[in-house]
Amino acid sequence: MSDTRSPRSELGAFLKARRAEITPAQAGLGDDGTRRRVPGLRRDEVARLATMSTDYYTRVEQGRVGASATVLASLVKALRLDEAQRAYLYELAGRPEASRRRRPVQRVRPSVQRMLDALGHCPAMVLGRYSDILAWNAAAAALYQDFALLKPAERNYIRLIFLDPAMRDLFTDWEDAGRVSAATLRMETAAASDDPRLAELVGELSVRSPEFREWWNGRIVSDTAYGAKRYRHPLVGPLTLDCDTWTSPSDPDVTFVVLTAEPGSPEDHALRILGSWHTTPEATPTDDLHG
After folding, report:
1. Given pLDDT bands bounded at 50, 70 and 90, which one contains residue 101?
2. Burial of 228 from C-beta contacts in 10 A (0-12 / 13-18 / 19+)
3. How far apart are CA 238 and CA 284, in angstroms?
4. The whole model's pTM is what?
5. Does domain 7-92 correspond to CATH entry 3.30.420.40?
6. The CATH classification of domain 110-277, taken from the options 3.30.230.70, 1.50.40.10, 3.40.50.300, 3.30.450.180
7. How far apart, in whole angstroms, are the C-alpha atoms of residue 247 and residue 257?
8. Which of 8, 19, 121, 238 has the smallest count of CB within 10 Å of its CB?
């Protein structure tokens, strides 16, 4: 069930999915009076918008030819791709706009753990490749669950969202959280399509979660860095928290996630209550995940 296709084949599938989302009216094309068999743009319409021949675009979509940087730029404009989709397209075409250095093993320095702990009642985590949970503070354990009780291989944020019933119940809008998670994971496949760890994770989620399988096949991509997250916590009730993320300057595959509330707000008070009820886990959260 995992994606094992070549980057060219995946690029074609991605282009097909994107053109299916755009109507002729949105693209500025008039109604030619013919009956349409597809909901979005036809290949010839994409080719016209991208100023290339229909035959050439068809070969690109079918994975029979590569795409130059100029062609990619034309397709980005024709299909109205956002920044995340643009980056994904370039990665699939083998023309990444920024090099990515990947490490076989991800660890968290003790100073990073101290930084998380210093955030007190604000939940904070460090996510690695594919949203593996590398480190967390007591507030994050109080909000989500005690990750120290999980096996290292199970400490994956996206896996928990789709396969853990408690996580499903925690999110007020679980479908939105699931879609964003699937889109975020899809974004990483362009640069690591041959990673066995990624194939294993996608395969497991595709088999065990019909929702993941549907959203994954929709080829939505996202690199959202901030926004509000809404929860219904079994101890303190509804929570709406601001979520901000930062990429590590020393490792682009490491992301810091911090949840905060307006000081003095009911949410801030609820986080403090959670913190006072939670006992800091004795296990060290910096165990290696997958080597």
Report:
1. very low
2. exposed
3. 30
4. 0.65
5. no
6. 3.30.450.180
7. 9
8. 238
